Amino acid sequence: MVIIPAIDLQNNRVVRLFQGNYEKSKVYGENPLEYALFFEREGAQRLHIVDLDGAKMGKPIHKDLILSIVKKLRIPVQVGGGIRTLQAIEDYLNGGVAQVILSTKAIESKEFLREVTCSFPYRIIVSVDVRGNYVATSGWLNIVEIPYLELLKELNDYKLFAVVLTLIERDGTGLGVEMERLQKALEVSKLPLILAGGVSTLDDILKLKACNLFGVITGRALYEGTLELKKALQIVQN
């Protein structure tokens, strides 16, 4: 299981939202590159960067900043937020991003998803963002009447690198992981699964290590100090 630190960008700064609420953001730093290099030095094997402004506006806003960070790192970086065109995907992949993360566009157009997964097999991740039992889109601002388990089943047919399952009610809260929806997801998904939302302590890491997960994304816990990256990495490596 891979521990994947998250860097969320808003107005060029490192922030975390509370349950995806743009009105409840907390700034942690003015220099995203410093955080990226720190996580790499600490032993992270992969990084998760989200363009929050891009997700809200439906187009990449921090693309230049993100690509400048990627060029300074040796570890693979997965990037999401406002990626809804073939051009945006190509720009990121050509700029050194390992995988791009789609959400809204992948849900709105299976034809688009089929096209990009055929053109870029295993370079695409789909983020299934869940509030209750339904899928959220547009930076989590809209809830669509698609049960998340149905979407996970559909995604099994695509050449995806992985699926990110984000439990919105837990995201940025420090409440710990919620196993019920995760276990249901593991039962239906045949793709590598990455959990996001609520990963806050070493106990969470121990609990999740027993699951068949590709990775877990954690952000606020690293910034607040409730989870130490080196110790978390030691647990999964042992």
What would a concise description of this structure say?
The protein has helices at 32-42, 52-57, 63-72, 86-94, 104-108, 110-119, 148-155, 179-188, 202-209, 220-224, 229-237; strands at 2-10, 13-18, 21-29, 47-51, 77-80, 99-102, 124-131, 134-137, 142-147, 162-167, 193-196, 215-218. With 238 residues, the chain is of the alpha/beta class.
CATH architecture: Alpha-Beta Barrel
- Form type: globular
CATH topology: TIM Barrel
Structural class: alpha/beta
| Mean pLDDT value | 92
The main sheet comes to: 8 strands, parallel, barrel
Taking pLDDT < 50 over at least 5 consecutive residues as the criterion, the unreliable ranges are: none
Strand segment count: 12
- Assess the beta-strand content as a share of residues: 25-35%
The assembly state of the depicted protein chains is single chain
Q: Enumerate how many helices there are, as a single number.
A: 11
**Percent of residues in helices:** 25-40%
Strand order of the largest sheet: 1-4-5-6-7-10-11-12
Please write the string of helix (H) and strand (E) elements. Answer: EEEHEHHEHEHHEEEHEHEHEHH
The CATH superfamily appears as: Aldolase class I
How far is it from the N-terminal to the C-terminal residue, by CA?
A: 11 Å
CATH class: Alpha Beta
Radius of gyration: 16 Å
- In total, the number of domains comes to 1
